[in-house]
């Protein structure tokens, strides 16, 4: 599909979905998109809410997670709890063993602290390349992005186009604030990571995540040693934000 056509489709769909509730946005996406739709979950609060909406509505999508090999033990426990709760297997996509081995050989086990370039190289091997595998051949992509999460994400959109994979990307909770997400999770008793209660608002790999202090942006605990404007891993800052 041509880039201009894909962009036009994303804009049109975004206008149609903007006034709908998140569950209806998901239903509409499934109706409008022919082919495989992938929901990538990292078991964050937003992802847990979206998975609940998908499961309760019977919306058929491919649910996958990127297992970097450096996740918190609590995340693995939540993964198992989530599968039991929703009675479905969440497919894991892993980095290639030889790429991880080469990365660690080059920069050491925690070499990502040394420079932004080293950190991006780690994210590329452990997250971006597995995402490439997860999205290969897909027509749609569902994510848990919200505008409120960071300054960079405010520039993204409810529906966008990803030219690299020729797919439409939907973030159904894009215009929700964290209080709304929490309220929904509480109302439906949705499983959540216990680290959230200890100030870990945005949870990724254990070495690259810390708790945040009151008043800090939600993603201040991710790659906290870098400049705030550059704290993305490469999954969501490609063309077609």
Overview of this protein structure:
Helix 2 (22-32) crosses helix 3 (45-57), helix 3 (45-57) packs across helix 7 (178-187) and helix 5 (97-107) runs antiparallel to helix 6 (116-135). The chain has a six-stranded mixed β-sheet. The chain has a single domain (3-198), classed as HUPs (Rossmann fold), CATH 3.40.50. Helices cover 39% and strands 10% of the residues. It has 241 residues and is α/β, with parallel strands linked by helices.
Any chance you could write out the topology, listing elements then pairs?
Blueprint: H1 3-17, H2 22-32, E1 37-40, H3 45-57, E2 62-66, H4 73-86, E3 91-93, H5 97-107, H6 116-135, E4 140-142, E5 159-162, E6 167-170, H7 178-187
Helix pairs in contact: 2-3, 3-7, 5-6
Q: How would you summarize what this structure contains?
A:
The chain has 241 residues and is of the alpha/beta class.
Nearest-integer average pLDDT: 92
| Highest CATH level, the class | Alpha Beta
Radius of gyration, CA atoms, in whole angstroms: 17 Å
Number of strands: 6
Which structural category fits the helices and strands?
alpha/beta
Determine the strand fraction and express it as a percent band: 5-15%
Could you tell me how far the N terminus lies from the C terminus, measured between alpha carbons in angstroms? 17 Å
Helix content: 25-40%
**From N to C, what is the helix and strand string?**
HHEHEHEHHEEEH
CATH architectural type: 3-Layer(aba) Sandwich
Q: Any idea how many domains? A: 1
């Amino acid at each position: 599909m041509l880039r201009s056509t894909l962009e036009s489709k994303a804009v049109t769909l975004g206008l149609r979905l903007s006034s709908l509730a998140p569950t209806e946005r998901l239903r509409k996406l499934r109706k409008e998109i022919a082919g495989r739709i992938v929901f990538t979950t990292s078991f964050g609060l937003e992802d847990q809410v979206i998975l609940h909406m998908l499961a309760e509505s019977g919306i058929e999508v491919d649910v996958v997670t990127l297992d970097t090999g450096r996740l918190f033990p609590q995340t693995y426990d939540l993964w198992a709890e989530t599968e039991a709760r929703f009675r479905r297997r969440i497919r894991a996509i892993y980095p290639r063993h030889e790429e991880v081995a080469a990365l660690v050989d080059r920069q050491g086990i925690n070499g990502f602290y040394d420079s932004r370039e080293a950190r991006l190289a780690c994210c590329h091997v452990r997250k971006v390349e597995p995402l490439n595998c997860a999205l290969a051949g897909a027509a749609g992509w569902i994510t848990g992005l919200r505008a409120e999460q960071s300054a960079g994400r405010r520039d993204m959109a409810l529906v966008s186009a990803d030219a690299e994979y020729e797919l439409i990307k939907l973030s159904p909770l894009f215009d929700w604030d964290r209080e709304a997400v929490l309220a929904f999770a509480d109302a439906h008793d949705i499983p959540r990571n216990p680290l959230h209660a200890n100030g870990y608002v945005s949870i990724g790999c254990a070495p690259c995540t810390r708790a945040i202090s009151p008043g800090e942006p939600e993603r201040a605990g991710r790659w906290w040693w870098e400049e705030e404007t550059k704290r993305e891993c490469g999954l969501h800052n490609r063309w077609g934000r």
